[in-house]
Design goal:
This protein starts with a strand and ends with a strand. With 119 residues, it is an all-beta fold. Strands 2, 4, 5, 6, 9, 10 and 11 form a 7-stranded mixed beta sheet that branches. 0% of the residues lie in helices and 55% in strands.
């Protein structure tokens, strides 16, 4: 099991930037692909971005492509989500998750961090 804790959320004006961090502990962090997801009130949780264990491959939802960047530092057991050109519709609780190399599922989740973008 991987223990995850997000940080870096907050209130920002539209057009602004935030960088989220997700610190991992437990099993070998570098074994896991990592993802960011978000959930807005009244909506289902949705995929935002993911990164392979090596950091060589990244994936993004169409809604954030070109604005958000996912990265990781395996030496620090941390994954980041740089969010630029934020829009009010980006407001949500953001979660990081670890994808199990055995199941291929996102089995471990952090408690989330709130991002609010004002217009």
């Amino acid at each position: 099991q991987v223990h995850l804790v997000e940080s870096g959320g907050g209130l920002v004006q539209a057009g602004g930037s935030l960088r989220l961090s997700c610190a991992a502990s437990g099993r070998t962090f570098s074994d896991y692909a990592m993802g960011w997801f978000r959930q807005a009130p009244g909506k289902e949780r949705e995929f935002v971005a993911a990164i392979r264990w090596s950091g060589g491959s990244t994936y993004y939802a169409d809604s954030v492509k070109g604005r958000f960047t996912i990265s990781r530092d395996n030496a620090k057991n941390t994954v980041y989500l740089q969010m630029n050109s934020l829009k009010p519709e980006d407001s949500a609780v953001y979660y990081c998750a670890a994808q199990s190399p055995q199941s291929g599922e996102y089995d471990d989740w952090g408690p989330g961090t709130q991002v609010t973008v004002s217009s």
